[in-house]
Each structure stands twice: as structure tokens, then as C-alpha cells.
Design a protein that fits this description.
heterodimer, A: 130 residues, alpha+beta, 3 helices, B: 268 residues, alpha/beta, Rossmann fold, seven-stranded parallel beta sheet, 10 helices, 8 strands, disordered C terminus
Chain lengths: 130, 268
């Protein structure tokens, strides 16, 4: 439902990374989404091209990486995988657990194209070697 | 032709531009939450509340589960004891804010248009339209929606999620992201339990525990004034806790901000 807003936030962050590294554009964007983040990967994938149109990542590949739900039991200390609506310990069945992973919505990495990739010798933006 | 928007690319040269080539490509590891901008604004809002000693409570539920009715009954009981103010979020109309103002309590209506949730920036803008002098308790009534509001920090200290007994008692299992975020779950309209044979409050509570959520479950009817004392006592205790935190320079983020985030940072 709010995946377009998430896509816009993603684009703003990637734009910041492009600027920070003086790159031309982004070619690959990797985002990690846990089931408990409340974001549907398929919807984010379809919202991304709309939000990215005309930006410096308009042609970037968007890799959405699943994160399994893992909980740590506060009673027996075991770490186990869990279902989205059953976050109990798989070892002892107790519900006093903490989420270890599965709720993240993270921009993990970005592949950037620097000027030389597009125009190795001719670009005025390429660093000069003296 | 330009070098910024990609309009100089044709199907013929695209593979040169966008296939990562080792010398011209850099992979940057970022590991930043996508909602970082919202979270920064939320932290700013929270600082604002803490400076003034305000306890901010975010009310979430599906449409029609009785958020505004609960607020009316709560404000009627507490408005002489504490300074109260309300931010209302709806897609359209000033109706809810007008219901609150009729009680003599400050209310600001956020009309979201088509947006299905409030975010920290909308709340920040609303705060600029409100006089918070003397306010102890700020209620934020989120857009009626059991999905999106759970993912956006507004700067509140506590999330309260309502589940009316005319809904299914398995709602926490169906909407785990929302109910996992609750610092308290209120079962509302309990006066109707007598005529409903398919809602079991104990089952609703069991479903909440399956989400590893230890939040208190309070059963009440705002209209019939049943169970309201426990809810008001909870609010008073939370306001006292907030005042104690403010004195020692601490704050509290609602359950929505997972401990998991700390673990990611530690392993990143």
C-alpha cells in the first residue's frame, strides 16, 4: 500500500550515494526486506520504475533480497526460524522471544558507474592524471 | 543529450553503459534503513515532546473499531486532570477533529487525501499548527488501517492498537506487523460480546502472545463506560513513567522499533 513512498525514499537515498561518490549513475541496487517490515517485495519492484523514471537510477537493476525471520528465545536462549504470525521459540515453545532478523528494510549496497565506464577517454568529468 | 538522466542511451549502447564493468563500477555497501528520513524526523518530533514533558500516544486500528469514541470518553475523563491535545488523521473530512473540539480539547485534523497512513513529516507539520503549552498528553489518531501505519514512526512514545469485538479474534495473526507494534491492545465494544458468539477475548490475547508481544490487553467499552478505569490507570502510569524519563534525560521508542535494528548494526 505504501510501497511507492518506500520507493521514493529508496531513490532519495541512492541519489545521495551517487552524489557522495561522484558517480554518474547507479546500475544495481540491493535492498533487504524482512517479512515483518510491512513491505511487499513484488509491489516495491513494480513501484520502483515509476519512482525512478528520469532519475540517475532509471535503468538500474533492483535486487530484492529476502530475510528469514529468526528469533532468539529469552527463556532458553535458542535461536530459531519462525513464521510471521508465530514468533515463538521452536526449541521450547515459549513466546518470550526477540527478533534477530526478519523486520529489516535496508538499502544494502549500490553498484555505481563512474564516468570512465561510459566514456573512458573523452569525458571532461574524468579525473586528470598529471 | 545529457549525462545525467540517461536520455543519451539507446538500445544499441545500453549494454555498455549498464553492464557493470570492473574499472568503471564501484559497489558501495550502504546498510541504511529505507525509512531513515522518516525516522530522523520522528526522532526530532520525539525530542520536541520530551522537551515539553509530553507523552505522545499513537492510536491504530481498522476503520470503525472505535478510536474516536475511545478518545471522546478518555478526554471527558482526563481533560480536567491533564492538558490534552489530539491530532486526527483521515483521508477526508474534519469530522473527527470537530468531535474532539466539541469537548473543548485542542484538535488538529490531518487530511491525507489518498495516503493510507500518517508519517513523521505530516505530524511535524501538524505540530506547527498547534499550541502545545500546558499539554501533558498528546493522542495521535492514525488513519484507520491495519497495515501501513505500523511501519512509520511518528515520534510517539507508545502505540495503542484497538481491536473491536465485531472483528475476528484472529486479527493479530492476520495482521502480525501491526499487532507486533502494539504497546497495549484494547479490545473495544465489549458490551457487544453478549450478542456475539464468535469472538473469544482469550483467543485474541493468545494470538497476540504468539507474536512474542507481552503488551497488556485491556477490555473495554467506551460507549457503556465498561473497563475504562484500567485504561485510564494505564495512561496515568505511562505519563508518570514519561515524566520520570524526561527528568533523567531518557526517552522511549514504541515497540515498532525492533531490538533487531541494534543487532543489525552490531553485525554490519
Amino acid at each position: 500500500m505504501h510501497e511507492l513512498a518506500v520507493a521514493q525514499a529508496l531513490i532519495e537515498q541512492v541519489e545521495g550515494v551517487i552524489r557522495q561518490h561522484h558517480a554518474e549513475r547507479a546500475s544495481r541496487i540491493r535492498v533487504r526486506i524482512g517479512p515483518l517490515a510491512g513491505v511487499v517485495p513484488e509491489l516495491l519492484a513494480s513501484a520502483f520504475p515509476l519512482a525512478a523514471a528520469g532519475s540517475r537510477m532509471a535503468h538500474a537493476a533492483l535486487d530484492l533480497v529476502d530475510a528469514p525471520i529468526t528469533v532468539r528465545c529469552q527463556t532458553c536462549g535458542a535461536e530459531s526460524e519462525a513464521a510471521i504470525n508465530r514468533l515463538v521459540c521452536a526449541a521450547c515453545g515459549d513466546w518470550h522471544t526477540q527478533i534477530v532478523s526478519g523486520d529489516e528494510l535496508l538499502l544494502e549496497s549500490v553498484e555505481l558507474e563512474t564516468t570512465s565506464a561510459l566514456a573512458p577517454n573523452s569525458s571532461s568529468l574524468a579525473p586528470k592524471h598529471v | 543529450m545529457c549525462d545525467t538522466c540517461g536520455c543519451n542511451l539507446t538500445p544499441g549502447n545500453r549494454h555498455l553503459a549498464f553492464k557493470p564493468v570492473a574499472p568503471g563500477t564501484t559497489a558501495v555497501s550502504v546498510l541504511k534503513g529505507l525509512l531513515a528520513k522518516n525516522d530522523d524526523q520522528a526522532a526530532h518530533n520525539r525530542e520536541h515532546f520530551d522537551r515539553r514533558g509530553i507523552l505522545a500516544v499513537n492510536l491504530m486500528s481498522s476503520p470503525g473499531s472505535g478510536k474516536t469514541a475511545l478518545l471522546e470518553a478518555t478526554l471527558a475523563a482526563l481533560k480536567d486532570e491533564f492538558g490534552c491535545a489530539v491530532i486526527e488523521g483521515d483521508l477526508e473530512t474534519e469530522n473527527d477533529a470537530e468531535r474532539i473540539r466539541a469537548l473543548g480539547v485542542t484538535a488538529h485534523q490531518i487530511v491525507t487525501g489518498t495516503a493510507c497512513h500518517l508519517d513523521a513529516h505530516l505530524v511535524h507539520d501538524a505540530l506547527h499548527h498547534m499550541n502545545l503549552d500546558g499539554v501533558d498528553l498528546l493522542f495521535i489518531e492514525n488513519v484507520g488501517n491495519l497495515v501501513c501505519p505500523a511501519s512509520f514512526d511518528l515520534g510517539q512514545h507508545l502505540n495503542v492498537t484497538l481491536l473491536s469485538v465485531t472483528e475476528g479474534d484472529d486479527k493479530p495473526a492476520k495482521y502480525p506487523v501491526m499487532f507486533r507494534a502494539a504497546d497495549a491492545m484494547l479490545l473495544t465494544k465489549t458490551d457487544l460480546l453478549a450478542v456475539l458468539d464468535d469472538f473469544d477475548p482469550d483467543k485474541a490475547e493468545a494470538h497476540l502472545r504468539q507474536l512474542a508481544n507481552p503488551a497488556p490487553v485491556l477490555r473495554l467499552s467506551a460507549r457503556r463506560n465498561l473497563g475504562m478505569d484500567a485504561w485510564l490507570a494505564w495512561l496515568r502510569a505511562e505519563l508518570a513513567a514519561q515524566r520520570a524519563r524526561v527528568k533523567t534525560g531518557r526517552t522511549r521508542r514504541p515497540a515498532i522499533q525492533p531490538d533487531g535494528a541494534q543487532l543489525h548494526r552490531a553485525t554490519a
